[in-house]
Amino acid sequence: MDQHMDVICIGMALVDSIIKGFDPNPISASGFRAVSSTLSVGGEAVNEAMAAAKLGAKTGILCALGEDDAGDMVLGAMERCGVDTRFVIRGKDHPTPVTTMFVNDDGTRKSITNQAHRHNFHPEQYLDVITNAGAIILGSLFRAPFDDPAIILSVLKAAKEAGVLVVADTKLPNFKVLSLSDLKEALPYVDFITPNEDEARYFTGKTDPEEMADVLLGYGVKNVVIKLGSKGCYFKNASESFSLPALPIQAVDATGAGDNFVAGLTEELLRDIPVKEAIRFANGCGAICTTAVGASTALKNREQVLEFVNK
Prior knowledge:
By secondary structure, the chain is α/β, with parallel strands linked by helices.
């Protein structure tokens, strides 16, 4: 069977328990109310893989799942979306992580992680998979499995030497803290980095998007996209910079919007779509994601996104 993938997504796989409209006022000694409670598959790599597959990319995922019901749920959801799951690592030594998400009326959210999120599988042991792709997406730079500088360097160096497009999304550290300087050897291998505004502020110490981008470019990253939520996004590389506004949408749940953005950007770049148009398309993917509860509910296919962004 052909091992080549358009996109390999690498990172965390989990189940999200999404609680919307939580009322902090108890109705009994230990009882509370919420508008809704939903189980949804999640994790950055899962969200990105499912979105990329829906958009038409031949997509695989390299992640770890426990041999448990939660792991079965994640695996089944990905397979129904057309994600190649041959490279999923399953084991009894750790459970599939479950994240509790509290979603506010405006779509913003807070999450609770646990020790299962610390499991650091070793993607550097699967370089034959990584180097046989058109692009790789690092679901969460600065979080497991990409919270070890040696692992990050090994994966990115091998990918770039094989001519693979490297796209790195970021997350704020949760259990192990790294800085940009800790990754100074690896960052020059990153083609696109896509932090949101809070992450960019945390890692660069800057508040202006252009200054944030300049810091990241100074570490050798080739292209920087800073996701600014309702303010759109900002792009900069060595030769150009621009801002794009957010697309108008009625947000319900922002869970996974950034992951859908990254998947859309990567998929369009592999089609040789110009950067500005690719980011505009990615904006559409992120906006559509927010219109339903769950990271993989609203986005259906590439035609849906093109119709939305071209209105």
